[in-house]
## 1
Amino acid sequence: MKASRFRCLNAPAVVPRTSHASLPSSRAFATAAPEPLATEHKPPRPRTTFQDRLNNGPALSSFITTPPTSLPASEALELRTALVGPAGRKKEITRLPEWLKTPIPDNSNFKKIKADLRGLNLHTVCEEARCPNISDCWGGNDKAAATATIMLMGDTCTRGCRFCSVKTSRAPPPLDPHEPEHTAEALSRWGLGYVVLTSVDRDDLADGGASHFAETIMKIKQKAPNMLVEALTGDYAGDLEMVERVAQSGLDVYAHNVETVEELTPTVRDRRAGFRQSLRVLDRAKKVSEGRLITKTSIMLGLGETEEQLWEALRELRKVDVDVVTFGQYMRPTKRHMKVYEYVTPATFELWRQRALDMGFLYCASGPLVRSSYKAGEAFIENVLKKRAIQSATAVVDARVNVTDSI
């Protein structure tokens, strides 16, 4: 027993039997990649004739830019229809008139402005509202000739107007406290002579964002005192104290859009907006500035308004001493928005422009593609403001001379 026990304690360890005795002793992953095989270096393939023709061929702009074609006046103003949809369920639609078609943006200055805006986390109503003039306004020969309407307080609105494509939410993200400084820095860097600021409606805020708006204007004036600022504001839910806060922040033009005639307001705008409420906003901005500010509004055509309704809207605007009015064609942003009732011809827009001027408006921009911040109107208003500033300075000098002579 002792010998047997001695032999057991000193015997070599017993190796258990296994059916995989041929496996290597080192462990490896089941999906281990095989070692790369040594391959000879092959010279690159020679360029083909097709590749040369492709690289030297037309650019994207050659396909998206159509050569201008001159049509007779009768054909150019004719509305065309088309049948769309699967067989058996086709429906007739009205095609976009020729006078409403615009080129696709393809400009180095357009790309530069867009890059600057994204770098500073700024938004524009040009993009959010899908403005058809974006290639025209952003595509100037230099930044001084370009116009971009900066949209403050984010890109999400608390209201849901049936014509507008801006995103909506009951609880938008909080305000960016650095936005006033970033906006002022960007605009002073561009060296613009005239800038338009607008904003989404923020009914979730106690002051509707009026303090944020006013702070942005004041910072712009600090960095660029000679820059003319137009503020396109909301109605602040009828709180006229907030209107006064923005109107007294140092801006030059106070704009607020009535959008349409009074009869169509309930079906076109959000239920919290109102034609009379908008008139009170424009009236208070004019009175609190003692007539110094230029007041401005915009009306869309093609929503189903009548001539008499338009006449009445213009008369109401003149009663509150609005200086500038613009007319533009309503264009349906998506199928979720209200349909276009009619495409108004350029001749009709010209007719309403002349009627507005005859009623005493200081300026009227009217055309199918005109929007409330259209740059043609800004150029005129800029000249008006500069003339007023010169007249005011001359009046001050004359008053001082008269005082000196009397002494």
Note: The longest strand covers residues 294-301.
## 2
Amino acid sequence: MSDQTSHTPTDQVVEDEMLPLMSEFKEIDSCIRTSAREHHNINEVFFLCQKAVTDPIAPLFDSKDSSLKPACVSALQRIFYLSDRDQDGYLSDKEILDFQIKCFGKPLSDVDLSNIKSSIHSQLPDSVTDKGITQSGFILLNKLFAEKGRHETIWLILRTFHYTDSLSLQSSFLSPKFEVPANSSAELSPAGYRFFVDLFLLHDKDNDGGLSPSELSALFAPTPGLPPQWQENDFPSCTVRNDADYVTLQ
């Protein structure tokens, strides 16, 4: 806006000029009335400019269709999967609280948790049950963040789970450096063994001691896929399987 003195109330300017502009051009993220001469909303302008660069809305949300973009949805689906520790298809209250601490470093009050569930339930009733929040509800919650201009919240979640600004996983996360000195070997620690045992038991839904193709697919769902070396060796044919041809814990 022109930096000229105006006696028009801000609320009227917002209603008469800014809202119609934002309604016509959905790609406009924010509008603000400011004046360098009158020192009005200077800090707010710099905050919004910084936010537009560090936490852009464009990669996440399609304003014209009022929907999250496919790459964002895919990333959030993976995050839901990883946060659903017991793999029952719901984020329980405890899983939501753990997610809150992991992403934001502070607990979520019972009132805030109730408000979150109410917001989701009002638009998608079936996504909130006694078991918790479904994946659809989790996606909706992030869509509400975007619609309310809180896309920095979505970015914080994405970056906590190692996503880049282009919504791809960080290469340092996918392929961390692991150097083994010459004439040395490496093996799993007890904690490493425990991790893989727990992972196997979690995905062996029918408790038959083997991972069926669907169970194996679910296990690798949050990953980029089978490592090239495994594919070259025709996994799972190259490993220990039971009579049903399912991969065993061994």
Note: Residues 100 and 106 are 7 Å apart (CA to CA).
## 3
Amino acid sequence: MDQIPPGTDLTKTPAGKPPPGVDSNLVDPPSLATATHVVTTVMIILASIFVLIRLSSIILSGRRTAWDDYTCFIGFVLITAFAGLVMAFTNVARHVWDIPLSYLLAPSYLRFIFAQNILQAPAVGFAKASILLLYLRIFSVKPKMRYAIYAGLIFTGILYGVHLPLVIGFCAPRGDSKIIDFDSCAKLTVWGPVQGFLAMLLDVYIFILPFPVINHLKLPPGKRVGVYVLFGTAICGIVASTLAEVYRFKQWFNRADLNWHEAKLFICIIVEGYIAVIVGSMPALAAFFRSPAVSNSSLFKYVRSHISTHIFHTSHTNPSAKPSKTSGSSGTKRSYTGTNSATESNEHLRDEKFSELNDIPTSNANAYSHATGPNRDIEEGIIEKSVAIKQSQQSL
């Protein structure tokens, strides 16, 4: 940073030179403060709901807390601490020529840079590791899948673990100083795009990892789609990490307006971290609503009854439903080719001899039983821990 002449009023001095034709505005400039507060608040609320549901699911199911639960909770706490720091310093979420120099030279702001750099990588790293550990708990019966998950965990540990020594090396206060060297810490912007690109690859890996196993599960088509959608929510992480990478590059190539791009980057990092927490907690959502304490409650029955009534009414008032004649021993019967009712759907499943949602192919039953015993559930309501083959062989 250039030498500041003695006696300069830092509160009235812009931290940077504006582009040609633009004037500094230190009073009411364009700011990303509102966007930061709104997006962060929404994500905190959503993630908190999923974390509470995850805790409730553990309590209601009576299962032991696993490593994926611990890492998810740690990631949630760290990303919330990071988000709190970012919201506390939105007074610098402006173009650099609209920021008073006194803001950037305040010891509290320089300590903020160090603290947010310390929290950023572990927060996102723990949240993403929780998804991989969830996969390990669900799909570890297959050796290839288990090794693939271990590889992902090692990659995650290296990617986000190396960030901490870099921050300490470039941003930690030196000697008796209690503040960081701003120019030294700014060099970390070079590492940012590298880490961001690798994070994108990790998110793609997390997204595609469970699908080969899901493809081999014997599920009714509708429920197979539901499982795809549930695990497919990880694509949101790819979107968030891609946007974060865009702003890392903008921050790197346009250091003259560092704070503006950094504010956008912080929003993306917050979204990326909370999405990882939500994705890792999605299976618990299904388990929560399947638990007897919830599914047998009056409120749940009321909502389910009204939804079922609406679907039934829609299926029988559908203009596209055409009456057709079917001949039988008792005469001519009328039926509808529109949406099937629940009874017709169940009969169809029996006719097609589908397994229940949590069943697996008979050819794999011995392998599953050998690895985990007769009550292996593939996660909380999706592929739950049951290898009992209940396939109906009823003759109609």
Note: The CA atoms of residues 13 and 100 lie 5 Å apart.
## 4
Amino acid sequence: MADSDAGSELFGSYEAELKLVQADLNQKLDQVPELTGEPRKSAVRLAERSLEEATELLDQMRIEKQNIPSSARSKINQRFRNFESDIDASKRKLKDLSSDRKALFGSRYTDDPNTDEQLEQRQQLLSGTDRLDRSSQRLRDSQRIANETEDIGRGTLADLHLQREQIQHTRLTILESEGYVDRSVKTLRGMARRMATNRIITVAIITVLVLLIIGVIYSKFR
């Protein structure tokens, strides 16, 4: 229960931080359409960094929500899906803003792919795409780790359940063995009592016979 409470608190902490990052990201995205040239490129880069930070926080929330009890996870999942939808919308918006090359590069933009300026523009766009790809890869890796962790947890629970059954079976076997031992002890005690009784009876019979013999002999020589 303590681990579940800690997971809930940590998820809430990530959620609060993500809301702040989202507000900052939305503000930056709203500023981009008003800019051109270098200011626009700078604003796009700032928005990309905020988007990366938001994606990383979303990945952490995805992992932490696995530690939340199933009874409370439905509401958590709904909030998480809302955050995912918002982040995806921000990604699409940033992609649209980045694809407006004329506004992004201003008067320097040209359709001639052989100029140095155009090559630089293409490299910058590719760099932004690479960052988005890395973020997506981190998301997939986090999901894979979460799935592997969940599989390991299920396996551990199954092993513990099997060990519990083995312990219970061993305990029943021990109790049954103790019952056999108790009955054996009682049987041996009964046999010992009967042997002692038989010995006393035998001694008594021999004593009576000896006394009778002595009496007969005494009567003959009297």
Note: The CA atoms of residues 10 and 84 lie 18 Å apart.
